[in-house]
Amino acid sequence: MTTISKENYLKLIYGYNARGIAASTSQMAKELNVSNSAISDMAKKLSKEGLITYERYKGMKLTRRGEHEALKVLRKHRLWEMFLQSVLEIPWSKLHDEAERLEHHTSEYLIDKIDSYLGYPQFDPHGHPIPKKDGTIKGTDMLIPMLECIEGKKYKLKQVDDKDVDLIKYLTDIGLLLDTEFEFIDRIRYDNSIKINYGKKETILSEKAASNLLVKELTEGEM
C-alpha cells in the first residue's frame, strides 16, 4: 500500500465519519474502484497502525490520530485548490484533480507558506472548510441540502461536491456559482427535481444535481 493510497483512504473515511457514518467495505471499494478484499486488507493495516477502528460488518472509523492525519491531507488539498484558482486562475472544474496530484507531494513547510500567502482562507473554492494548522476545522452546521429547501424561501449556494466535474461544468454553464442567491420556486413530484429562480433566470435542477449542493437559508437582514 503506497502513502498516496493511505492518504486517500483516510480522507475518504473522514468524509463518511463527518456525516456520522461508519465507512463500509462495499462503499469504499466502489469509490476507490478496488475489490472488497483489497479494502479489507487495507483496513487491517490501518487498524494495526492505530489510524482506524475496524470491525467486520460494522464499518470503519478514524481514531483521533487517524482524524488528525486525514485533516492534514484535506488542508493541503483545499489550500492547493485556493492557490490554483486565485493565483493561476485554473478553471473551477479542474481544481480538484490538480490539487489531488499536488497534495501528496507537499511539505508542511510549503503548505504553511501557501496558507500565509493566501491570507489564511477559511473555505476552499467549492465551499468546504479548510482545516487549520492545529487540526481544527470550521463546522458547516448552518448548511442544508438543496433538496430540503422550502418553497418561497431564499437561499445562497454555499457548497458543491468538488469530485463531480460534470456537475461543476454544468453549474458554470448556467451561471449558478458559489454564493449565488436564489429563490426556491417548486418541487416537481414526478422526478423530485426542483425549480429555482436566481437573477433573471429560472432553472430546473435534477434530484441528482441538487443532492450534491448545500445551501444556507437567508434571513431578512441578509436579503
Q: How far apart are the first and last residues' alpha carbons, in Å?
A: 51 Å
Assign a percent range to the helix content: 40-55%
Secondary-structure content class: alpha+beta
Q: Secondary-structure element order, as H and E? A: HHHEEHHHEEHEEEHE
Q: Cα-atom Rg, whole angstroms?
A: 19 Å
What's the pLDDT, averaged over the residues? 91
Please report the number of helical segments.
Answer: 8
Please state the overall shape, judged from the principal axes of the Cα atoms. Answer: globular
Which residues form runs of ≥5 with pLDDT under 50?
Answer: none
Q: What fraction of the residues are assigned to beta strands by DSSP?
A: 15-25%
**Would you count the extended β strands for me?**
8
Summarize the structure.
This protein is α+β, with helices and mostly antiparallel strands. It contains eight helices and eight strands.
Produce the secondary structure layout.
Layout: H1 3-18, H2 25-32, H3 36-48, E1 52-55, E2 59-62, H4 64-86, H5 95-103, H6 108-117, E3 144-145, E4 154-160, H7 165-174, E5 181-188, E6 193-198, E7 201-205, H8 207-210, E8 213-217
Antiparallel strand pairs: 1-2, 3-8, 4-5, 4-8, 5-6, 6-7
Helix pairs in contact: 1-4, 2-3, 4-5, 4-6
